[in-house]
Design goal:
40% of the residues lie in helices and 16% in strands. It is α/β, with parallel strands linked by helices.
């Protein structure tokens, strides 16, 4: 088994410059999500750095506008009956037409597509296949039949890939435990566009007005879909424990969710006596404008890979309280609070401590930490180095 390397910080032997690459990035769709927005941002930065990048996706969606704003080439695959693997012949033709050197596939179904299409190519023209690991808990057993089938095929086919790129050390270690004969892996943390995610008093006032909150209210924010893995139940309990009867404290949850899920969470908030101070405001296509409205970001997830929301909020000067999953503790790095997964009492304590210590200096420290360690430019540079290593071309 090849040794695992980390390319988030410059590793020994990492090339200081790379020749231009022809990269195809394969996504599941253009719906709003962390993996999708990160892939588009990374593709844009790689293109800006001189590489030739093409995005290929299984479905269209609202993020098409963002793709087009970056001037990225985009293709949407045709599928028969909605089945992803029916797109393999078309993807193979696109490999032949575009001649990418590397295909970087995000998430498991796209891995299978890339591997299947590459296997149909002549060996001399076959692109290298890179699998992107975007979560930290590959040991969890899928509950749905389709997911179980995909997982079984992944375990069989992954050794045919050329490289793994994980956005957290926990994710890479978890996947290696699942697939011991997986190919070489590197860790490249996600990057943040620190010019787009920045403090803004004007946006702070705008969103608080839209949410009918006082400009001087204390606002704890959560950004993420209303899915059980995000553990909003624990968030509500921790908020109730930390805020008590403080009428000036509000919790704002930004994210899509079905009506039944929202109603259940609102009933829990009412039962906890915090219903009037908890606000489910729906999802936003562009969350970069929302973070400045918060005083603290809360992340109560049961599992994550690299939670973009934490780095994005900190880039906006908003410190965070997080559960210890994926790369969360590496992002917070002692500036905010890290608590055990699933422990509402501990999370409430973290909120209480951070509320007591928040200041303009802490906000600036949060932003400086992200701009120094998690910029989009650094992520693109390390990604390019990892991809270039597959082609055995080093330019000094």
């Amino acid at each position: 088994m090849n040794a695992t390397a980390s390319l988030h910080t410059a590793a020994p032997g990492t090339p200081t410059a790379t020749a231009p690459l022809r990269v195809m990035m394969l996504l599941g769709g253009l719906g709003v999500g962390g993996a999708e927005t990160q892939a588009i941002a990374l593709a844009s930065e790689l293109q800006r750095s001189g590489h030739v990048v093409e995005l290929v996706t299984l479905t269209d969606g609202p993020l098409r506008t963002l793709v087009e704003s970056h001037g990225l080439a985009l293709r949407v695959l045709s599928r028969v009956g909605g089945f992803a693997l029916t797109a393999v012949p078309e993807l193979t033709r696109w490999f032949a037409a575009s001649t990418p050197q590397v295909v970087y596939a995000f998430l498991e179904v796209q891995w299978l597509l890339a591997l299947a299409a590459a296997a149909r190519m002549p060996a001399a023209r076959r692109p290298r296949v890179v699998l992107g690991l975007r979560t930290s808990d590959y040991g969890a057993h899928p509950t749905q039949l389709k997911a179980r089938v995909v997982r079984a095929i992944v375990k069989l086919t992954t050794p045919r890939a050329d490289l793994l790129i994980a956005n957290s050390r926990a994710g890479l270690d978890s996947f290696r435990a699942l697939v011991p004969d997986a190919p070489r892996g590197v860790v490249v943390h996600n990057g943040v566009d620190v010019t787009r995610f920045a403090p803004s008093p004007a946006l702070r006032a705008q969103w608080r007005h839209r949410w009918s909150l006082p400009i001087d209210a204390t606002v704890i924010g959560h950004v993420g879909r209303l899915h059980p893995v995000k553990n909003h139940e624990m968030l509500l309990r921790a908020f109730a424990l930390s805020s008590g009867a403080a009428e000036s404290h509000h919790l704002v949850c930004v994210g899509h969710g079905n009506a039944d899920r929202i109603a259940a969470l609102e009933r829990l908030a009412d039962t906890l006596g915090i219903g009037s101070r908890v606000h489910f405001v729906g999802g936003e296509d562009d969350t970069s404008t929302v973070y400045p409205a918060f005083d603290i970001l809360a992340l109560t997830s049961q599992r994550e890979g690299f939670p973009n929301v934490v780095a994005e909020a900190m880039s906006c000067g908003v410190p965070a309280v997080v559960t210890d999953t994926g790369a969360s503790s590496a992002i917070v790095a002692g500036i905010g609070e890290v608590t055990p997964v699933g422990d509402a009492d501990a999370f409430a304590g973290g909120l209480t401590r951070l509320l007591a210590h928040r200041s303009s200096a802490l906000s600036q420290e949060s932003r400086t930490h992200i701009t120094t360690n998690f910029s989009l430019g650094a992520a693109a540079s390390h990604t390019a180095a990892a991809l270039q290593s597959l082609l055995q071309v080093n330019i000094v």
